[in-house]
Amino acid sequence: MRIAIAGAGAVGRSIAQELLENGHEVLLIDKSPKAIKVEMVPRAEWLLADACEISSLDDAALERCQVVVASTGDDKANLVVSLLAKTEYGVPRVVARINHPKNEWLFNESWGVDVAVSTPRLLSALVEEAVSVGDLVRLMTFRQGEANLVELTLPDDAPLGGERVGSVRWPRDTALVAILREGRVLVPTPDDTLEAGDELMFVASQDVEDELAELLSAR
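^ thats the sequence. predicted structure below, dont judge the formating
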């Protein structure tokens, strides 16, 4: 994929390095000359420009991008980049960084955002995930709350322990996407058996989370 990243600070460069290692084409955009550190990500394209301006995005050929990542340290800039990417260039996937939790409500479809990533929220969710057994933890929200990535560690006395994945009547709009077991990532099949201590990863709609938590909870 061709991916444009607005914001070439530490966050943007880290994202770029990961994407390049996965074989993608990456363009880093930043308006600050100090941020243009080509030697730190030499395989990326670089553009010294303001990503909030149409002329800059024309120069970036944003219409050829499959993904745009708005990763600056300014929430206002990230919203503008997201809106322009979606409405002016029809970018299929727009991912935006939220710097301040109070602004989270703005990062939705009306601003062109497909996925919003809030570092404080993600960190708190990961803390919960690390210490919680038997509690459903929301890790990430997709499409403004229409679907969430949630995790639950199956407790020892969970009613589903020993059950086959295919025999469980999961709530509607729920998909078990991965089982983490003893350091391995398992792609679940109908014949796999659920075991105590499994970390279960689901994509589920928000309105069935309580039903899912009740199904998986201990007796």
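The longest helix spans residues 75-87.
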